[in-house]
Amino acid sequence: MTLEKIGAVMVVGGGITGMQAALDAANTGYYVYLVERSPSIGGLMAQLDKTFPTNDCAM
Amino acid sequence: MDKCIACGACTAKCPKKVVNEFDGRLSKRKAVYVDYAQAVPLKYAIDDSQCFFLTKGKCKKCETVCPTGAINYDDTAQDLSINVGAVIFSSGCKPYDPSTHDVYGYNSSKNIVTSLEFERILSSSGPFGGHLVRPSDNKEPKKIAWLQCVGSRDVHIGAKGYCSSVCCTYAVKEAMLAKEHAKNGLDAAVFYMDIRTHGKEFEQYYNRAKDEFGVRFVKSKITNIVPTEDGNQLLRYIDESGNLAEEEFDIVVLSVGLEVGQSAIKLADKLGTKLDKYNFVSTSSFSPVSTTKPGVYTCGAIEAPKDIPSSVIEASASAGSAGSALSESRWTLTKTKETPSELDIRGERPRIGVFICCCGTNIAGVVDVPGVVEYVKDLPYVTFSDQGLFSCSQDALNNLAATIEKQKLNRVVVAACTPKTHEPLFQETLGTTGLNKYVFEMVNIRNQCSWVHKDNHELATEKAKDLVRMAVEKVALMGPLKEVELEINQTALVIGGGIAGLQSAKTLSEQGYHAHIIEREERLGGKGLSIHETWMGENVAENVDQLITAVENDDNIEVHKASEIKHVDGFVGNFTTTIQSSDATVDIEHGVTIIASGANELKPDQYLYSEDDRVMTGLELDRKIITGDASIEDTQTVVFIQCVGSRIPERPYCSKVCCTHSIKNALTLKKGKPDMEIYILYRDMRTYGLREDLYREAREKGIKFLRYNFTKGIEVDYDGDDLQVDFTDTVMRRKMSIRPDMLVLATAIIPPQKNPLAQMYKVTLNNDGFFMEAHAKLRPVDCSTDGVFLCGLSHGPKPIDESVSQAIAAATRAVTLLARKTISISGTVAEVNPKDCSECGGCVSICPYSAPSLIEESARFFPGRAQINPALCKGCGLCVASCRSGAIRLHGFDNDQILSQIAAISE
Predict the structure, then answer these.
(1) Which of residues 731-770 of B touch A (CB under 8 A)?
(2) Pairwise CB contact (< 8 Å): B90 & A38
């Protein structure tokens, strides 16, 4: 028996990692469900002021 | 939720104040709230555990003030069933909570903060508006201390045995930023065990903090902190030579580590993935994003503590691994946006619509937005003008589209924030109405008006009017531009047949694409062939062999051994690479390029290396271990010297893998011969992340770690026939000698001295000679040249698991291009009018993207004149400015358009 694979991916967690995974999965041809517990995506990185080693704004 | 326009009226009225987790303990928020101004989606939420109505049944104040009726108290959690082909587990980590086992007095002093709270103190959207102050009394601090390894590298109760990987570099960053913030000088000191700045270009960053910013780094062990009467903290510690010392600070920052939260542990249980003893998701070096459960992939800090670039690399890798598993169902469930056919606006009188954004209070708090709207109405060709609270919100965009249709607008100006992030959004909206996306101008009245002139509202408003007027004048002269669509060749070229190259070719094949591997040597495997075991203990040779077999038996992959790249032509989607082997020259056409060309182990010219065969590099020891060399059995004393050729002025970077590699080999030797005496001479032990367990195990097994004084150096000489290693120990502060019968040099990973690939594919190298990524954080495998991707050692020193992740990630990023099949080239490109060209070649030499070229002399039309390949042009305008004959125009920035703006501003 062969089962047809479902062309959708669920990404659990909407921090920087989850967002990048969701974008790449969508851009390679899969429907994405991005699931995040808090009211907005962004995760820990959104709380940072700047990022090393370039001192770019984390936003 | 759809009704919420994020006006903030609900929050203003809400009577319930709660601690704002977003700012740590430092501020309060309301029970109805949004995390931060740029939150996505920008919709207010009700905290059901705090809301008066939801907990006590009384209040409903937010409902009465909401202008759109968006408040819905019944909108509670629902169970949904969703069918998917794969799951990516990316729930991340949380900062270690120092309040549960409070050893430093965090709970009792406001001036002891976590590093995340300190980020919020530094942030301009944080609790103190970006002013660096002491939380207890808002005084500017004079001295701040950072305490490293809080909750990390500690096996005591409540703490974690692993290294959290990121805290050293973020403490370096916070100390530097704090020094920049403090107007009246600040003393910043970092108290540490080992400084672990092992990431790409992190060591140079650390050096800058020490040498340019004057941040003090104190190797120490903190004993306790005593609060003083004036709100300071007295820090007591044992310094490196074992003496007790103390020093007072205004603020103490706890550099807290990362840990897996309880909810993630429960989630892992539901997903059925195995966790390790620290509750990180278990993976292996050769499948670094696959969990123990088929179909469930992982990435980021839930897999092990890691920084942003590594997390982003794994994110792409996990999407790619999921994609490999589902490739037959690609594009079966995705939806495509339908765009109407383009309206023909030629010959129409301009009808300009101007939309001014308030950005909440971000713009409207400074600029008189209604005043600008009124002013605009009298400008030529302006048919319509209006303001919006957030012009980028979904309802505002719908409104924009409806207005364009209703008012029959054929030109649009939006005055809001930066076009860098928001222009595509508005242009897409134009597209949905049938307008060409280039009959659009965006004005940045946030950065250029309300931000820089926040203290002068009148000036900011006048400037906003000027900028909008310029845009109106320009847009009136704008016409539709064409975006050329090019087909993307569906083949990939992978340069390098080491672990990274093999893995990326394998991933491409799994996704259904054809790949070529170019390998200079006679055999595949690269450096992987010389390594004994990974840090997790997997046999490298076996895994590399499997990878080679898989690649060589794959019909989708063509391997070209003993071949070198001679010439490269073309651009994203249409490269032609000429390769040469001993017997043939072949042209390969390909749409994308993955560079996995590797790096080498430094062969040093010091410490008697190559003069005495008892002295060897780390990989040479691996070779002896792999072959079971008899000399190991006769060895009684071994010395490892760390940082040979790394972290020195002429090669400032850290080679990342050598600390773990030496420990791994030391443990292997010790296992074979438990009475062997092993010494590791180091500067900072950088067994980051879960590798810290190996370091602990090595110390428990009696391997001796001695920190040598780097400035005084190490000498290796003969004493009779014996090798003698002399160095100054930093703890004892005196000279020591060891006579080993094996000396292992942990030498640097070095890039090739000359790298013709950089020139051929127009990719930049960093100061150390490694390939540079497009963005250190967010595009860690892309190159600034479109269609070229990076992985493995050619991008920077890294262990096997990280090379494999990056290889899968590079292939995945390549597939994001290949899967689209076509690529549209921006309409904002330069074009030559060959009739006016004087054949000077100025444009050819000035263009950083090699877009202009001279037409062949044998051509029928305009031989010798310049032409510009739109696929390579980035629209920078350098050629236009440099053309002495005025033969080049940049579409969207024509002379009349720019002159009209200048005329508008000089009125």
Answers:
(1) none
(2) no
Distance CA B811, CA B782 (A): 10
Give the Cα separation of B15 and B705 in Å (integer): 59
- Taking only the tens place, the pLDDT of each residue in B166-217 is 999 999 999 999 999 898 899 999 999 999 999 999 999 999 999 999 999 9
Q: Domain B492-600+751-823 class?
A: alpha beta
Between CA B25 and CA B98 the distance in angstroms is 12
Instruction: Give Cβ neighbours of residue B441 (< 8 Å, ≥ 6 apart).
Output: B412, B413, B414, B471, B472, B474, B475, B478
First to last CA, chain A: 49
Q: What is the pLDDT of residues B660-695, one digit of tens each?
A: 999 999 999 999 999 999 999 999 999 999 999 999
For residue B708, the 8-state DSSP code is B
Q: B202 and A45 in contact by Cβ < 8 A? A: no
Bridge partners of B143, per DSSP, are B187
Kindly state the percentage of chain B with pLDDT values over 70.
100
Minimum distance, in Å, between the CA of residue A1 and any CA atom of chain B: 16
* DSSP letter, residue B470: H
Across B800-814, average pLDDT: 98
How many residues does this entry show for chain B?
907
How far apart, in Å, do the first and last CA atoms of chain B sit?
A: 46
Inter-chain touch B819–A27, beta carbons under 8 Å: yes
- Give domain status of residue A48, yes or no: yes
CA distance B263 to chain A (A): 10
Do residues B827 and B481 touch, judged by C-beta distance below 8 A? yes
Give contacts of B 23-82 with A, CB under 8 A: 34-36, 38-43, 45, 82
| Residue pair B344/B479 in contact by the 8 Å Cβ criterion | no
- B480, B439 in Cβ contact below 8 A? yes
Domain positions in chain B are 9-78, 94-259, 262-328, 352-479, 492-600+751-823, 601-749, 829-890
Retrieve residue B826's tokens. 């921006």
Measured CA distances, B697 to B179, B278, B667, B670 (Å):
39, 16, 8, 11
Structure tokens at B583: 């017997």
Q: Residue B97 is which amino acid? A: D
Chain B, residues 836-875, CB within 8 A of chain A, namely none
Residues 6 or more apart whose Cβ sits within 8 Å of residue B81:
none
Size of interface A-B (CB pairs under 8 A): 207
Q: Check: CATH 3.50.50.60 for B94-259?
A: yes
Range of the domain at A44: 8-57
According to the per-residue pLDDT averaged within each range, which of A41-50, B294-303, B416-425 is highest? B294-303
Tokens at residue B113, please?
A: 């903060």
Helix (H, G, I), strand (E, B) or coil at B498: strand
DSSP single-letter state for residue B834? T
Residue A43 lies in a domain: yes
The answer for residues whose C-beta is within 8 angstroms of residue A51's C-beta and 6 or more apart is A45, A57, A58, B173, B308, B777
pLDDT tens per residue across span B854-904:
999 999 999 999 999 998 898 999 999 999 999 999 999 999 999 999 999
* Chain A residues within 8 A of B513 when measuring between CB atoms: none
- Closest by CA to B461, choosing from B392, B364, B386, is B364
**B778 to chain A nearest CA, in Å?**
9
Q: Which uninterrupted H or E stretch holds B115?
A: helix B115-122
